[in-house]
Structure formats: structure tokens, C-alpha cells
């Protein structure tokens, strides 16, 4: 495996330390994982473009917060991509906490960029962690800043992109599970790579949990389950279990061992996806974004060629705000009338002094 470089700096006053993850074992994704990623069709991605909204509840049924997930087409670094944004906010033991993940992915779920923000506001103190990763010059650059009270810890690491083939992150895993749920199957021996809390490369696997019945909105729903396990070099593996409706909407999500469960309270509207007519496929969205950028560039060029436009509009707004007329349209007509002196006068317009 190609080696990563990492710097770890903890700042408290003037103190600092350096170190890095102990990456002694080589981890790579399986051929089945690469085949799965390359088999994703644009039509499948289109079916994944919608939002989910769940509520977090305790074992006793107490409402602790909410979980929202949005998947949409976007553009990053001049290329069409898929944006995944997940947010969870709430309070545990009366301590506010939350996580926000925003990821930009290619159509085969390669991670272009991802930003993760976690916080916990404790009594008398707080913890705030931000982690950002982005592809740049053939490297995956990762920077993390953790604030715990007055202590600030900074970590920076870079991996060759070639060492992270089949990388699945927090953001991309949410879209990957939607795809699995829509297909209702997952090939055996499909093993991806991920990064643990210390930025070590580890394995992550997804498997089917099959169908079960789930109570929601006073009724019984048939849902399909997907289990995600993030293995670790030194710690116990972390396991999440998610169940989906037939159309891919998330019905429940929980981390095994956690007292908190995300559950669907209201069935998604059947007309929700009809509002996404503009984004019927990636090609149409890409063309729309290209045309939008062309129009913006054309307008900007015209304004640069005619600087008098900005001066004219600025003078008009200044006069408008000074006079504050009741009839803005009439005022505008009278203000700009002298600029039309090269045209024959309109007999229906009576010029007045301003």
C-alpha cells in the first residue's frame, strides 16, 4: 500500500505533539465492490433523488431530535455530481448535540469532497469537531479540527487516491444503502474500504437483512433491511442497521448498541418526486447547469463592456431612496425620460421636473 502522510498537532497554550495512525495492515476493496460501483446506472441515481425526514426517539419513546437526508444533483469543480446532505440535531440527557455531513460524489459514488461537523454542548464545556476531505492533485487531503473546551487538536493527512479505491464515507454510505434497498440485493463478499476515527484505512461491508414488518403511522409497513459494518484495527466494529420502504425511502436507522433510534413518523408524499421534473437525468441536469453558466458569463461580459450601466442604476436608486415616491413606476418613467431624447416624444407622457 502507498503510504499516507499525517501531522497531528494538539494546541493548549504553546504545547504541541505529533504522530500518526499505525497502518500496518493493507486494506483494499474487493472486485465485487468495484463491479457494484461501475454498474450504477443514471436511472438508478434518479430514483435516489429525494429527501427523507425521521425523528430520533429513546428506548422509552421520548422524542430526542430529528434526522434529515437530502440527495440531489449538483455541480462541483466544473463537473456534474451528486450531493448528499444529512443532518441530525437533538439533545441527549439535556445536552444539545448534532451532526451535519455534506458529500459530493461522482455517478459511481467516488468521493470528490466531503465535510463533516459534529458537536456536543456539555454543561460547562463543549466538543466541536470538523473534518474536511477533498481530492486534489491525485491525493485525498483530509483536515480535522477538534475543539474540546480550550484545547484545540488539529490533524492533517493525505492518501494517494489510488490507495482509496472503493472508499465509502459517511456521506456516500447513505446513498449506497439507498441503491442497495432499491435493488433489494447485495452481492456476497462485497467489501469496501473506509477510514476510522484515527484515519486508518479499514474495511466496511454491507449485507442484506431481508424483509420485516415495521409499525408506522398506526399501520404496518413491509420494509427491507441493510446492515453496514465498519471494521477496525484496534477497536470493536461499528454496526448500523437501516430499513427502507419499497421506493427507497428510509423507514428506520439505528446504531447497534445505541439507545437512540431514527424512525419514520409520516409516509412521504407520493407527489414528492413529481416536483423533480427538471432533474429527470444527469445529462439534462448537466446541460442545464452548462447553459446557466454560459448565460451568467455572457451577462458579466456585457456589464464589463458597459460600465455606465452600473453608474446609471446606482444614480437611479439614490434618487429613488431620496425622494421615496409613492408611485415608483411613474417616478422611473420620468427619471429615464431624458435618456430617450433620441426617440420621438410620446404624446401620452407629460414630463415633469424632478
TrEMBL record:
Protein location: Cell membrane; Cytoplasm, Cytoskeleton; Nucleus
Q: Where is the Ciliogenesis-associated TTC17-interacting protein N-terminal domain?
A: 32-259
Q: Where is this region: Disordered?
A: 1-31
**Alphabetical keyword list:** Cell membrane, Cilium biogenesis/degradation, Cytoplasm, Cytoskeleton, Membrane, Nucleus
Note the InterPro entries from the entry: CATIP_N, DD_CATIP
Q: Origin, by domain of life? A: Eukaryota
Q: Describe the function of this protein.
A: Plays a role in primary ciliogenesis by modulating actin polymerization.
PANTHER family, per the entry: CILIOGENESIS-ASSOCIATED TTC17-INTERACTING PROTEIN (PTHR15505:SF3), RIIA DOMAIN-CONTAINING PROTEIN 1 (PTHR15505)
Q: Which family does it belong to?
A: Belongs to the CATIP family.
Name of the protein in question = Ciliogenesis-associated TTC17-interacting protein
